């Protein structure tokens, strides 16, 4: 990922970001950070870049011309390489407040431009021309945009694959949710009479996890009552969905893995948006409640148009959904869930490995699922695809769908009936268990073979079907 920072103080930004984790990521080439000096673009012979504001008022304003010309030069370079105009973030106290989900959204970009103001700000006309996002780092005023831009670069860069821990995918990062982190301790075991809590020395991982969660809850309640309130709502929603656990596992896992934007929760229904796929997941008591909920959440027609993927848990909603969102019914599925905590045995001698980009054409050739263009490539790049090999040759593969279900399983024709599908799925279920997740699959209703495979691995099926709808 490439960060481009337009500033009057390039050395502040470069010096501030060239050490530690971000500095190392720059050295490795995982990210680039380039500061562009706006002053170099002024047409003023004295190199002036600011002037008094019309109408009076304190301080000076940065003028439109040097900012615009600096941006055009950076944009030209970006378009030449990527074919796409970049997102331009103006860092300003008059913006939306930066938060983690904004960082996650920015981390999906290949190029990101930050425009740093100084003095009293920048001539509005150039902002209207070039800015796509107005963002503040908090409700206080700093002397310039350089520190806020550095804060955002740091928060976004650590989400880029390979910056924090090599090869770990952000799609498999464990759930932090709305809770603050628990307290941590290192050696020595006793310091100034204070002992490390016994449980942390016990070696019992389940107990340690439990203790850490309790500490997180206590700390959040004390220090951030606003976040604690959100946590309570999520917990109540989780308990509501747990009344039909197998059927709602997709929604439960989106919540637990921290991938859900909760849009509605009452006794009559739950609507959330899964962040990786953008899919809306919905369950409701009956058709009347369902319609009422969706009409209130999507009251604006432009909002409705943005809905590209929708998972409905009730068949009675489908006709309404098709008309309301102009989408079509694409797939009927049964949800199968691995409810145990113990890993599954994987047949001995199976050669299963993570797949890299070199396998793209094999995967694209053999994957038969109903997905949009670029889907297989995107899953492969995010590090969630695994292959099974026979005598070093790829014999089949498995992966995870964007919304979190185990899937994308294919065994190539000459390698069938050798137990490879079962080995791959058992292996993948174990991966999800290691993340602390509940593994689940969504199997097309008529896929008898896959349904039998789920049964043979002791997955439980939900009684009711769910429905994928899309554009
Ligand atoms: N520039 C000055 N103060 C700022 C803030 N709080 N956030 C973003 N940019 C700023």
What is the rounded distance between the termini?
A: 30 Å
The average pLDDT is 95
- The number of distinct helices, counting runs of at least 4 residues, comes to 16
What is the CATH class of the largest domain? Alpha Beta
Q: Supply the helix-strand structural class.
A: alpha/beta
**Can you list the ligands bound to this structure?**
adenine
Outline, from the CA principal axes? globular
Contiguous runs where pLDDT drops below 50 for at least 5 residues: 167-175
CATH architecture classification name of the largest domain: 3-Layer(aba) Sandwich
Q: What would CATH call the homologous superfamily of the largest domain?
A: SPOUT methyltransferase, trefoil knot domain
Number of structural domains:
4
Percentage of residues in DSSP E strands: 15-25%
Radius of gyration from the CA trace?
26 Å
In CATH, the topology of the largest domain is named Alpha/beta knot
Strand order of the largest sheet: 10-11-12-13-20-14-19
Number-wise, the strands total: 20
User: Helical proportion?
Assistant: 25-40%
Biggest sheet descriptor: 7 strands, mixed
Please provide a written account of the structure.
With 471 residues, this protein is of the alpha/beta class. The chain has 4 domains: 2-157, Alpha/beta knot (3-Layer(aba) Sandwich), CATH 3.40.1280; 174-223, Trp Operon Repressor, Chain A; 241-333, no CATH class; 351-437, Gcn5-related N-acetyltransferase (GNAT) (Aminopeptidase, 3-Layer(aba) Sandwich), CATH 3.40.630.30. 36% of the residues lie in helices and 24% in strands. The chain has helices spanning 10-17, 20-28, 64-82, 100-106, 124-130, 146-157, 205-223, 225-241, 249-256, 287-297, 301-305, 318-325, 360-366, 375-381, 420-434, 448-456; strands at 2-7, 32-37, 50-51, 61-62, 87-97, 111-116, 133-136, 190-191, 194-195, 260-266, 269-274, 280-284, 309-312, 328-337, 351-354, 386-390, 393-400, 406-411, 440-444, 460-470. The strands form 5 sheets. Strands 10-11-12-13-20-14-19 form a 7-stranded mixed β-sheet, with helices on both faces. Strands 2-1-6-5-7 form a 5-stranded parallel β-sheet, sandwiched between helices. A hairpin with a 2-residue loop joins strand 16 (386-390) and strand 17 (393-400). Helix 3 (64-82) runs parallel beside helix 5 and helix 7 (205-223) packs across helix 8. Mean pLDDT is 95; it is low at 167-175. The chain binds adenine (ADE). Adenine binds next to strand 5.
